[in-house]
């Protein structure tokens, strides 16, 4: 038993952890009662692994590297009722996932419970819950379906991030979208020595860095990448920002508008976080991906 509270807490929905595409189709097309009956009738049928499975499995394995300190905890968070939770929990047990916490809300939104579980990252296939989490100030992303490949899990956890509106705030992204590329470059160059405001995933990356520091020094069990559409003309502010935050990114790619897919394939990410659907859709055919929605304008 680990003595201390975990450093990093991941909340994940049942559809992000396991492949529930068939079950979700039943729910959408045949209704809640048929869905409930199906799940109860199949309680002993183990669910297939979903998009977020290997990320969760690999993060939980980090707990074996440090004594008296639980590095990572995972909480299953589901809109299902506890009445139909047995199939999910049986699958967790079948795969020997060290998950002991769960929340079943019977249709109620999950965002209000993130603080109660001290969640650092929330992953779900349900956009409404992800949007609610982002609007509440939590790192959150909507996982896209992905056909898991035989090379997973990797010996090394690899997590890739977009920059603007993910690690950094959407301030500069908005300038680009509204005023164009020339004004964006001018703004970034004139503010090169001013750190970018933090985006929704900055706190998660910082907590991930704490985990990295606590792992044995002769291992590199976590590797991170920043893959941004920016080009090298506006790199200075990014580098100075990460330095100011005291964050080490292992690999950084300034794509200058090129597709990110081939770089993601070469990097071999367990997951890639981006705010642009135009980047997510092609990437989701190559690596597990998750969409980070922008905060709701108030």
How would you describe this protein?
This protein has 298 residues and is of the alpha/beta class. It has 2 domains: 136 residues, 3-Layer(aba) Sandwich (Rossmann fold), CATH 3.40.50; 135 residues, Rossmann fold (3-Layer(aba) Sandwich). Helices cover 36% and strands 17% of the residues. The strands form 2 sheets. The protein has a 10-stranded mixed beta sheet with strand order 5-4-1-6-7-12-11-8-9-10. Strands 2-3 form a two-stranded antiparallel ribbon. The chain is globular.
Key phrases:
alpha/beta; 12 strands; Rossmann fold; 10-stranded mixed beta sheet; single chain; 298 residues; two-stranded antiparallel ribbon; 2 domains; 17% strand; globular
Net shape: globular
Largest sheet: 10 strands, mixed
Q: N-to-C terminal Cα separation, in Å?
A: 44 Å
Strand element count: 12
CATH homologous superfamily title of the largest domain: HAD superfamily/HAD-like
Mean pLDDT across all amino acids: 91
Beta strand %: 15-25%
Low-confidence stretches: none
* Helical percentage: 25-40%
Number of domains: 2
Assign the CATH class of the largest domain. Alpha Beta
Give the number of helices. 12
Structural class category: alpha/beta
CATH architecture of the largest domain: 3-Layer(aba) Sandwich
CATH fold topology of the largest domain: Rossmann fold
Strand order of the largest sheet: 5-4-1-6-7-12-11-8-9-10
Order of helices and strands: EHEHHEHEHEEHEEHHHEHEHEHE
């Amino acid at each position: 038993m680990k003595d201390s509270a975990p450093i990093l807490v991941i909340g994940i929905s049942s559809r992000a952890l396991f492949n529930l595409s068939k079950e979700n189709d039943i729910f959408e097309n045949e209704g809640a009662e048929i869905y409930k009956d199906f799940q109860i009738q199949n309680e002993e049928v183990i669910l297939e692994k979903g998009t977020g499975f290997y990320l969760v499995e690999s993060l939980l394995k980090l707990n074996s590297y440090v004594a008296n300190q639980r590095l990572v905890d995972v909480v299953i968070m589901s809109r299902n009722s506890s009445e139909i939770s047995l199939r999910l929990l049986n699958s967790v047990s079948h795969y020997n996932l060290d998950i002991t916490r769960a929340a079943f809300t019977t249709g109620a939104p999950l965002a209000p419970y993130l603080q109660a579980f001290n969640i650092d990252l929330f992953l779900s296939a349900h956009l409404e819950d992800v949007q609610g989490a982002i609007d509440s100030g939590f790192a959150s992303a909507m996982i896209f379906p992905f056909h898991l490949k035989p090379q997973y899990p990797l010996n090394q956890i690899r997590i890739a991030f977009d920059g603007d509106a993910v690690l950094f705030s959407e301030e500069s992204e908005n300038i680009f979208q509204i005023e164009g590329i020339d004004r964006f470059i001018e703004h970034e160059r004139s503010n090169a020595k001013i750190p970018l405001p933090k985006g929704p995933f900055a706190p998660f990356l910082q907590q991930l860095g704490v985990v990295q520091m606590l792992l044995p020094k002769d291992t590199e069990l976590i590797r991170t990448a920043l893959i941004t559409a920016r080009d090298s003309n506006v790199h200075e502010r990014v580098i100075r920002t990460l330095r100011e935050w005291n964050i080490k990114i292992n690999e950084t790619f300034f794509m200058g508008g090129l597709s990110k897919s081939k770089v993601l394939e070469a990097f071999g990410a367990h997951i890639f976080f981006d705010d642009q659907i135009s980047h997510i859709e092609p990437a989701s055919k190559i690596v597990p991906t998750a969409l980070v929605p922008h905060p709701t304008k108030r």
